[in-house]
Amino acid sequence: MIQLSQKIAANVIQPRKSQSYKGTYGRVLIIGGNANLGGAVIMNAQAAVQSGAGLVTVATDFSNKTAIHARLPEAMVVDYHDHLADYIQKADVVLIGSGLGEEVDILKTCLKAVQENQIVIIDGSAITMMAEHNLDLPKAQVVLTPHQMEWQRLGEVAIADQSREDNNWEALVSFHPEPILVLKSNATQVYLEHELYQLSVGGPYQATGGMGDTLAGMIAGFTAQFHPLGPAVLSAVYCHSAIAAELSKSAYVTLPSKIAEAIPAYMNKLADMPLSATGLDEEQEE
Ligand SMILES: NC(=O)C1=CN([C@@H]2O[C@H](COP(=O)(O)OP(=O)(O)OC[C@H]3O[C@@H](n4cnc5c(N)ncnc54)[C@H](OP(=O)(O)O)[C@@H]3O)[C@@H](O)[C@H]2O)[C@@H](O)CC1
Ligand SMILES: Nc1ncnc2c1ncn2[C@@H]1O[C@H](COP(=O)(O)OP(=O)(O)O)[C@@H](O)[C@H]1O
Ligand SMILES: [Mg+2]
């Protein structure tokens, strides 16, 4: 088991090159937000934009359009009932599921349209629907971000059995292609290429609706601009909770949108950090 550390995150987040433009930092398509759960995609998109994704488009129930534009003018908005496959084709990273509710046709269109070279982050309602409708993972680079109940539904590992690493690995090998699993809880773990990473920052100040939507948006923003995929996911997971821990010094609860606002400053700190300050020369394996 490897502790997720600032070292891992800082290794991923580098100063930007002057010869770059928005296209350099990736195109993210967020699919989610039914007529009642538009807040989820606002939190996804806010986190992706603040993480530095070059271009962010939200494909959603069109009743969410004005709210998204008002909260986040940086994001583009399209109706997820129209030409969804065309929008998917143009994306580097697709994040699907936050606040998607029971829109299974949208999910099926997405699973069919994504290509092998694309990163697909599957969150929230999409995980629940994949379990309910027995849907296969798409042939793409997949990141699953379930909370414990969602993992019980999809991985068929009872919550009480999820504390045993072997049970989760056993469930994971039955998926093709084998995804990266971000198993969220009060002690989040990342299962990545036969290695288990343990998160030990963060706390109960994060137990509020939208916290996972914000994490999913950060993973989208990080994986759009930082390569390879695995370290980018680890870095997003660490930064999400490390920012919450910093905010918790002066806040009883750390609201998802406040975490999103704090992302650029935190990333700046890590990008500027000298190697010695992060302990980049030390090994932290246990
Ligand atoms: N503003 C918005 O638009 C928001 C939109 N959202 C969107 O709503 C959709 C539904 O997501 P969801 O997570 O709220 O519901 P669901 O999948 O039914 O899971 C809840 C069930 O699981 C159980 N449970 C057990 N362990 C658990 C654990 N560790 N963490 C969490 N739950 C745990 C729990 O147990 P209970 O609390 O009842 O004891 C309950 O029975 C999803 O797409 C999401 O993105 C939300 O983000 C909120 C803000
Ligand atoms: N007690 C806690 N300690 C640390 N992190 C927590 C705690 N409770 C919740 N979280 C974090 O908050 C997020 C909750 O995700 P999720 O349940 O998907 O939220 P939502 O769907 O409402 O956005 C996860 O990242 C989880 O690790
Ligand atoms: Mg969630």
Please render the helix and strand layout as text.
Elements: E1 2-3, H1 6-12, E2 27-31, H2 38-51, E3 55-60, H3 65-71, E4 76-79, H4 84-89, E5 93-96, H5 104-113, E6 119-123, H6 124-132, E7 141-145, H7 148-155, H8 165-172, E8 180-183, E9 189-192, E10 195-198, H9 211-225, H10 229-247, H11 256-272, H12 275-278
Parallel strand pairs: 1-10, 2-3, 2-5, 3-4, 5-6, 6-7, 7-8
Antiparallel strand pairs: 8-9, 9-10
Q: How big is the Rg?
A: 18 Å
Bound molecules: ligand NPW, adenosine-5'-diphosphate, magnesium ion
Give me the side-by-side strand order of the main sheet.
1-10-9-8-7-6-5-2-3-4
Structural class comes to alpha/beta
Helix content bin: 40-55%
What count of structural domains?
1
The low-pLDDT segments are 281-286
Q: Give the N-terminus to C-terminus distance in angstroms.
A: 6 Å
CATH A-level architecture: 3-Layer(aba) Sandwich
**What is the CATH homologous superfamily assignment?**
Ribokinase
Within the CATH hierarchy, at the fold level, what is the topology? UDP-N-acetylmuramoyl-L-alanine:D-glutamate ligase
